[in-house]
Amino acid sequence: MSSRGDSDPLAPFHPAVRQWFTGAFGAPTRPQILGWPAIARGESTLILSPTGSGKTLAAFLWSLDRVMFAPVPERGRACRVLYVSPLKALAVDVERNLRAPLAGIARAAAARGDQ
Q: Residue 1 pLDDT > 60, yes or no?
């Protein structure tokens, strides 16, 4: 991550993602600040922190950013995110928790005139 990213943990994200996140939460939590650089580098990352500390967004915000704003990959390489859940209930919970960020980021992108 660049020195710009070191001073602002949200700097590497798309502007619409940053706008939505700061509007919704103000600032990242410690698990997010510590997790995002490793996730951005594509490293396997384990985040261990209490319920309500932002783990879901620590894990998935990069995925949302990539799916929404990165160019569509070439045919045959279309899988950009693979989530494997140990429990169906957890998968449903994660999906439900990601609906608001997806909608909020889409609204921020539309307001900015992003595609």
A: no
Residue keyed to tokens 């951005």: 40
Is 51 exposed, middle or buried, given 0-12, 13-18 or 19+ CB atoms closer than 10 A? exposed
Structure pTM? 0.82
Domain count, the chain: 1
For residue 69, give its domain range. Answer: 3-112
Q: Give the CATH number for residue 92.
A: 3.40.50.300
39 with 45: CB under 8 angstroms?
A: yes
